[in-house]
Amino acid sequence: LPADAFVQGIVILTSRAVALASWIGGTELSGFCADLRKRTLVMDTDIENQYLMAKLNDLQREEAAAFEEG
User: In this structure, are residues 42 and 54 in contact, taking their beta carbons and an 8 Å threshold?
Assistant: First the structure.
């Protein structure tokens, strides 16, 4: 990849990184999606579970829209 290439992803900043990593490591993570109407970032796991990861402010909502577009 070129040095200036844009790579999509999600960064989670928390003081409980080890606990979060342990929990996510034990799930069947299938993806993240942004609900722009509700202004939320949701983590999808296995076939029927979803977890609210963040409530989005105006700037984050714009970033989430770009994330959803790919």
Answer: no
Q: What is the pLDDT of residues 43-69, one digit of tens each?
A: 999 888 999 999 999 999 999 998 888
Q: Which amino acid is at 27?
A: T
Distance in angstroms (rounded) separating the CA atoms of residues 59 and 67: 13
What beta strand segments (E) does the chain contain? 29-35, 40-45, 49-55
With 0-12 / 13-18 / 19 or more C-beta atoms within 10 angstroms meaning exposed / middle / buried, residue 70 is: exposed
State how far the Cα of 27 lies from the Cα of 17, in Å rounded to an integer.
Answer: 16
The set of long-range contacts for 39-44, using a CB threshold of 8 Å and a minimum separation of 24, is: 41/10
